[in-house]
Amino acid sequence: MSAQANFTEKKYLTVLLFVTSLFFCWGVALTLGDVLNRHFQHVLHISKSRSGLVQLSLFGAYAVMGIPAGAFMKRFGYKKGILLGLGLYALGAFLFIPAAEAASFNFFRFALFILACGLATLETVAHPLIAALGDQRTSDQRINFSQSFNGLGGVIGPAIGSYCILKAGQEHSGDLLAVRDLYMVIGFVIALLGLAFLFIKIPSLHTAHAVSDGGGGNIKQLLRRKHFVFAAVAQFFNVAAQGGTWAYFINYGHDVMELSDEKSGYFFSLSMVMLMAGRFAGTALMRFIAPYKLLAVFAGMNILMCIIVAQQLGWISFIALIMINFFFSIMFPTIFSLGLKDLGRHTQQASSFIVMGVVGGGIFPPLMGLIANHSVAEAYYLPIVCYLVILLFGYSYPRLAKF
User: Fold this and answer.
1) Three-state DSSP class for 295?
2) Membrane-crossing residues (predicted)?
3) Are the C-beta atoms of residues 369 and 246 closer than 8 Å to each other?
4) What's the CA gap between 92 and 89, in Å, rounded?
């Protein structure tokens, strides 16, 4: 291998760009869920804690679909795995049409669950695929680069949602027809994307992390790899913090800052700009700073941000809330990539388990909602626990990777 590993190779470029577009698509879907969270509170007259079940439907699908998606990918390959994910994504979006007609919160949750099964499948396939599109030494950079476009989708999602759904005074701001129409368009776009992917050829790949075999092929062998086990735990807490922070961002803007839902949604979109900026900055910094060190530093910064948010210091606290996304930015892809290193033939199976950790994003928002029913600001003390786990993972990683 050369002294300076290339970011990727020319033969992988088309696939890399297409798969990166998938990161954008699920960024839109996940952050639109946070807009729906607030809209359902208003239109369907549900509490903050019950609206947190939106995130349970989204992220809970990852726990259900993680292992089946990994098994499907192992049996049928990357391409069919992506097509399955896009198909479920489109189906879930189209289910919003009957859900809106029924005006049923549970029907919407079912539609979101099917949609999120598609997202879980795409994430299970996309991360090891991106890692395999080049030298292992640059896999962290590739995953963070692709995740940067997940951040771009996160910017677009709440901006579209705020304009189409939350904007006060428009014809359907107080009902579910705007939600129906928006998701119908999303369904058609994703279906067309799946059709286009049929014509893209994926070149023969070697697993990017296949430096060592790690022994036999059963799960017991995988669970002996301490860096993988801690990565799966860290990812659970990481997405838990993400889910809770995003779910009540608009509520914080409305309740604490006394902004309209629409303006709060636009600030949420701004916070996603910070997430995207953080991922590009993190990708660059990782050429000089070890990824696990940067992860620990960013986790420590978010502990500080959460403390400031909970103090209700006006714009100082609101800026800290926006900055959480900057420091959160590198966590998901970096934990994912660190957890997959040197797993050999276990890599695809390990990807399934790490994706399952995303269920944390479904469990945490209802818990934060119980506090947010009384004080949205104080609810932001809860993610501190999550960032402490992530900090410990980053700090301990060099020792964990030896086993």
Assistant:
1) helix
2) 12-32, 52-72, 81-100, 106-130, 151-170, 182-200, 228-249, 264-282, 294-313, 319-340, 352-373, 379-397
3) no
4) 5
| CA contacts within 13 A on the Cβ side of 47 | 13
Give me the numbers of helices (H) and strands (E) for the chain, helices first please.
18, 0
- The CATH superfamily holding the domain 10-400 is MFS general substrate transporter like domains (1.20.1250.20)
d(CA 383, CA 199): 43
* Cα–Cα distance, 164 to 177 (Å, whole number): 10
SS3 194: helix
Q: With 0-12 CB in 10 A as exposed, 13-18 as middle and 19+ as buried, what is 11?
A: exposed
Provide the residue type at 73 as one letter: M
Give the CA-trace dihedral at 67, 240, 61, 102, to 10 degrees: 180
As given in the structure block, the two tokens for residue 207 are: 């697993």
Residue 290 DSSP symbol:
-
Here the tokens at position 128 are 């090891």
DSSP string, 323-378: HHHHHHTTHHHHHHHHHHTT-GGGHHHHHHHHHHGGGHHHHHHHHHHHHHTT-TTG
**Domain boundary assignment for the chain:** 10-400
- Identify which has the larger pLDDT, 65 or 216: 65
* Buried/exposed code over 354-367 (b: 16+ C-beta within 10 A; e: otherwise): bbbbbbbbbbbbbe
Taking only the tens place, the pLDDT of each residue in 243-279 is: 889 889 999 999 999 999 889 988 988 998 898 888 8
Q: How far is CA 305 from the centre of its chain?
A: 20
Radius of gyration over alpha carbons of the chain, in Å?
Answer: 20
Q: CA torsion sign, 73 to 59 to 393 to 283?
A: positive
Place of tokens 């050369």: 2
Question: Is the pLDDT at 214 greater than 60, yes or no?
Answer: no
**Cα–Cα distance, 328 to 392 (Å, whole number):** 15
Say which residue the tokens 């992506």 belong to: 82
Q: Say if CB 110 and CB 92 are below 8 A apart.
A: no
Answer whether 194's CB lies under 8 Å from 86's CB: yes
Tokens 């301490």 — which residue?
226
Which pTM value belongs to this model? 0.75
Q: Which amino acid is at 362?
A: G
* Rounded Cα–Cα distance for residues 245 and 384 (Å): 11
